[in-house]
Specification:
This is Putative trypsin-like protein. InterPro entries: Peptidase_S1 (IPR050430), Peptidase_S1_PA (IPR009003), Peptidase_S1_PA_chymotrypsin (IPR043504), Trypsin_dom (IPR001254). 20% of the residues lie in helices and 32% in strands. The protein contains 4 helices and 13 strands. The N and C termini lie far apart (69 Å). With 250 residues, it is of the alpha+beta class. The strands form 2 sheets. Strands 7, 8, 9, 10, 11, 12 and 13 form a 7-stranded mixed beta sheet that branches. It has 2 domains: 79 residues, Trypsin-like serine proteases (Thrombin, subunit H); 101 residues, Beta Barrel (Thrombin, subunit H), CATH 2.40.10.10.
């Protein structure tokens, strides 16, 4: 009888230990996902930042087409991820290929995108956990908090001027789209995600997102800022990455 009781207690202890280890593993994976942020990618023209890009593979960046309108000779890509100080340009990459969306139409800004291929793998440095491109059409519930990128206020970050602009992460809240439908009328479709700033307390730079900036929710890149719709003010629009899947896969 005593042996049976001891055996039962051992099984209970083992079960409890397994449950604890499983819970810790889940917590660890959740924390890792929460820590995944978008790379701070700049698209520079003649040394000056023109817009922001979204990393879609180890050496490719999705950008608004207008940011590549001058051709590759004067464009570079910079990575300012990982707490790069404002006086440092960050890691710079050369462009080896530019591919515009095949359905690009000046009258229809919805396909105004291009993909830059750079000369080597984009490396944000040790310890930086970059967000991964979402696979397929990810459902994003209303109220979800996402992370995007905006230009930091020079009044609070840089005492002097530099060719590149300091960037910072901006938290946004996904909405039901009513405000976007009201503002953009028949241009608004299910191809877009509507959001609003999660915090408007910054009196110097309260709203806005940089052109071409990624939208990351739960560690996944789910959208890219659609400034042809709206990327300034309290109503922000992001093109769903899933709607550009065929173009990205080329």
């Amino acid at each position: 009888l005593i042996s049976s009781v001891v055996q039962t207690e051992k099984i209970k202890m083992l079960s409890l230990r397994l449950i604890t280890l499983f819970a810790v593993a889940l917590a660890g994976s959740s924390l890792a996902k929460d820590e995944r942020l978008p790379n701070m990618i700049t698209v520079n023209m003649s040394g000056y930042m023109y817009c922001v890009g979204t990393v879609i593979s180890k050496n490719r960046v999705l950008i608004p087409a207008m940011c590549a309108s001058s051709g590759g000779s004067s464009i570079t890509v910079g990575d300012r991820s990982g707490n790069v100080p404002f006086y440092d340009s960050g890691r710079l990459y050369s462009i080896i290929n530019i591919k515009f969306h095949p359905d690009r139409d000046y009258m229809n800004q919805a396909n105004e995108y291009a993909i830059l291929t750079v000369d080597r793998a984009i490396d944000a440095g040790k310890g930086f956990k970059g967000a991964k491109l979402a696979k397929g059409d990810v459902e994003i519930p209303e109220g979800s908090i996402g992370t995007t990128i905006r230009r930091a206020s020079s009044m609070t970050t840089t005492p002097v001027s530099y060719p590149w602009s300091p960037l910072e992460y901006q938290s946004v809240r996904v909405t039901n789209g009513a405000a976007c439908k009201e503002m953009f009328l028949d241009r608004w479709t299910a191809d877009y995600i509507c959001a609003e700033p999660a915090d408007t307390s910054d009196i110097y730079n309260p709203y806005g997102v940089e052109s071409g900036a990624p939208l990351v929710v739960d560690g996944q890149i789910v959208g890219i800022a659609a400034c042809d719709m709206g990327c300034w003010g309290t109503t922000l629009a992001f093109r769903r990455i899933s709607t550009l899947g065929d173009f990205i896969a080329q």
